Amino acid sequence: MLKNTGVLILAGGRSSRMDFPKPWLQYDERSSFLERIIHIYQKVGVTDIATVVNSDFCEKPWDEKIAAVSRNCKVIRNDHPNFGRLYSIQLGLAHLQSDNIYIHNVDSPFVNEELIVDLAAAHHGSGVTIPVKEGRKGHPILIGSDVKKTILARYEEFNSLRDLIMEFEQKLVDTDDDGIFVNINTPEQYKQLTGERIR
Length: 199
Fold this sequence. Notes:
Blueprint: E1 5-11, H1 33-43, E2 48-54, H2 63-69, E3 74-78, H3 85-93, E4 100-105, H4 113-122, E5 128-133, E6 136-137, E7 141-143, H5 145-154, H6 161-165, E8 170-174, H7 187-194
Parallel strand pairs: 1-2, 1-4, 2-3, 5-8
Antiparallel strand pairs: 4-7, 5-6, 5-7
């Protein structure tokens, strides 16, 4: 595993189309989406882990889940989900010590550990490493120190993370993992992928 590497799990949105907090969707009988992603990174040796969570999803009835997650992960409350994704990212990056950071969406718990390791093996310099399948880019991405510094210092100058990383060298890593394309935004998508109803 790449040294000096952490992960930021983004869960700061409103989950409005889902009508249920995405971090607390069940991945399986034992784990929520957020817990599953934390476990993936722990398995490959990443210990500098943080998540930005919409503050509405930190209160009752979710406070026990937050307490459980906090044992393995720094939890940063986002009181301003309307400020956008880049705001959430800079909020989380400020709590991570590592120079190299995976940016991982909480509604993408289906990638495997091999992909995480492959991204780390390919990562070099201070740019961005991105998984691709059949020419199509996916996530998570792995950013280097210069990208991290730019987000922390100048995130408000950019419309999106995609626009920001265009300023940096991009290393593309081929993968067969279809999980890099999965985003779950609606109850119908959740049921299609998991076979479960929201609970």
